[in-house]
Amino acid sequence: MIYLDYNATTPVHENVISSMIPIYSTDYGNASNIHNVFGLRAAKHVEASRRLIAENWNVTENEIFFTSGATESINWSIKQVFRDYASKGNHIVVSKTEHKAVLSTCEYLEKNGAEITYLNVDENGHINLIELENSITDKTILVVIMWCNNETGVIQPISEIANICHNKQTLFLSDATQMVGKEKIDLQETRIDIMPFSAHKIYGPKGIGGVYMRRKNPRVMLSSFIHGGSQEKGRRAGTLNVPGIVGMAKAIDGAYAFNRSKEIKMLRDKVEKLILDQVKNADINGGGSNRIFNVSNILLPNIVAEKMVALCPNLAFSLGSACTSERKTPSHVLVEMGRSKEEAISSLRLSFGIYNRIDEAQEIVDTLVKAYNKLKS
Ligand code: PLP
User: Fold this and answer.
1) Under-70 pLDDT residues of the chain
2) From CA 118, how far away is CA 95, in angstroms rounded?
3) Count of H helices and E strands in the chain?
4) If you take atom 10 of ligand 1, which residue's CA is the nearest one?
5) Which of 71, 78, 323 to mutate to test the pocket of ligand 1 (most atoms within 8 A of CB)?
6) pLDDT at position 72
7) Would you state the pLDDT for residue 87?
8) Residues having CB within 6 Å of any atom of ligand 1
9) Of 273, 269, 291, 294, the residue nearest 282 (C-alpha)
10) SS3 121
11) Active site residue 323
C-alpha cells in the first residue's frame, strides 16, 4: 500500500515517538501541579517545548499557546477577535478557498451579527491583492487568508498580504497548518498576527496544535475561549497534553518534510508528468501557481474520482480535504478556482511525504491510469 494522503495526516516520526515515551512513562505529572516534582518536570517539558517552537519561528515563547489542534485554534481566534474587537467593528475579510474550519466559523459568526466579505481567487487559487485592499474598511477587525491550501498546495503571497493588513491597521490571521514544517518560517519577516497550526500534518501526534499571537505591533491579547483552570496564562483552560506538546515541538524542530523537500518534489513532479503524458486532457489544479512541493491535485476528465479510490486498492489517497471527502459535493476550492462541478468531481488529491520513494512513481501512475481507463470504458 502506498500512502499518498500526507495532507490529511502523517505517521508520527520515530524521533517524535522517542521524545514522547518518557512523558508517558516517567515524567507523567500534571503540568499545572508544580508543587510536586512530577508536575514540575512536566511543566519544564512544556516550557522547553514552547521555547523550541518560538525559536524556530523567531518569536518569543509567550506568543505561543497550545490547543487541541488547528480547528480549535481557528475557532478561538476568529470568534474571540469578533467578541474582543466589537467596539471597533464587525467586519471580517476571508478568502473563499479557506479550510472548512475557517468558513464554518465565519458562517456561524455571520448568523451572530458579523459582516463577512468573501474574497475571490483566480484560476491559480490566488486572491487579488487590490480586491483585498479595497475590501478593508474602518470596521474591519480581521483578515483571514491561509498560507498554503490543503487541497491544491497553492501558496498565497503572505508577506504582501500581511503588509496590506498592517498598513490598514487590521489584524491578519493566516492558517499555517499546511505550511509549518514544510518551509522555513520567520514571523519577524512575515508579519502574521495570529497563526494557527497543528502537529499531525508534520509527523507529530494527533489532537495537539497551537496558535501564535503577536505581542507587539500590534499586541494581540485574545480572551479565553475555553473556560476552567488557569492553564496557558488563563487563556485556554484544560490539563495540558504534555506528551503531545513535546512531540509537536520535536516535529516542528525536526522539520522532517522540509529536509526531504527536494526528493518529495521530484516524485510529485514525475507523477504529474507521467499522468499528463498518458491521460488525454488531464490537468493539474493550481499547476500554474506557486505550490508547496508535496501536493498534486489532478483533474482526470469525465470521471467520478471517488470511484478511483476503490479501483486503486494499493494506493491511499483522497479527493480533497479530509473533512469533506465523504461528501459527494464538488470541492469548494476547485469550484472557486473556476473548475466546473464536473471537473471538480473528476479531481483527486495526492499528497506525498517523507516515507514515499521516487521509485514508487511508476506504480502510482500505472495504477491510476489503469483505473481511469477502466472507468472510461
Ligand atoms: N487548516 C488546514 C489548512 C488543514 O489542512 C486542516 C486539517 O485538515 C485544519 C485546518 C484542521 O486541523 P486539525 O486537524 O488540527 O484540527
Assistant:
1) 321-328
2) 5
3) 14, 12
4) 70
5) 71
6) 98
7) 97
8) 69-71, 99, 101, 146, 150, 175, 177-178, 198, 209, 322-323
9) 273
10) strand
11) yes
The Cα–Cα gap between 272 and 151 comes to 16
pLDDT for residue 348:
97
Q: Residue 153 has what pLDDT?
A: 98
- For ligand 1, atom 9, the nearest C-alpha belongs to 70
Which atom belonging to ligand 1 lies closest to the Cα atom of 209? 15
**How far is C-alpha 12 from the chain's CA centre?**
17
Residue 34 is predicted with a pLDDT of 86
CA–centroid distance, 36 to ligand 1, in Å, is 36
pLDDT value at residue 327: 46
DSSP classification of residue 128: P
**Those residues with Cβ within 8 angstroms of residue 174's Cβ, 6 or more apart along the chain or in another chain:** 144, 145, 146, 147, 156, 158, 161, 162, 192, 194, 195
Cell for 275?
499522468
User: Helix %, strand %, coil % for the chain, to 5?
Assistant: 40, 15, 45
Tell me the C-alpha distance between 95 and 128, whole Å.
10
CA 122 / ligand 1 centre spacing (Å): 23
pTM, two decimals, is 0.97
Distance 198 CA to ligand 1 centre (A): 7
Q: Sign (positive/negative) of CA torsion 346, 103, 249, 29?
A: negative
Q: What pLDDT sits at residue 321?
A: 59
